[in-house]
């Protein structure tokens, strides 16, 4: 039994923030050079992607919770 429901939008956002942190930790440690302007598009793109994933996930859950089934004949399956 799950303790909580999976939230893919938060997973995407956390992954992007972790990636940004790793990039700047590597820069601070001297492993590589990361330009200062990399963080803004990375974080903003990640937040937009996370928002889109959260919207799609919410719609899928609402559709599944509404009890839609494919047992009813649709317009193309009329007898």
Question: Can you walk me through this structure?
Answer:
The chain is mainly α. The chain is 62% helix and 0% strand. The protein is elongated and about 60 Å long. The chain crosses the membrane at residues 35-58.
Mean pLDDT: 88
User: How many E-type strands?
Assistant: 0
Please compute the radius of gyration using only Cα atoms.
20 Å
Summing up helix and strand content along with how strands pair, one would put the structural category as: mainly alpha
Largest sheet: none
Distance between the termini: 42 Å
Q: In percent, how helical is the residue content?
A: 55-70%
- Count up the domains: 1
Q: Quaternary arrangement of the chains shown?
A: single chain
Task: Describe the global form.
Answer: elongated
Count of DSSP H/I helices:
2
SSE order: HH
Transmembrane segments: 35-58
Keywords: Membrane, Transmembrane, Transmembrane helix
Top keywords for this entry?
membrane; transmembrane helix; single chain; 79 residues; transmembrane; 62% helix
Compile the SSE list and pairings.
Layout: H1 8-29, H2 39-65
Helix pairs in contact: 1-2
Short description:
With 79 residues, this protein is mainly alpha-helical. 62% of the residues lie in helices and 0% in strands.
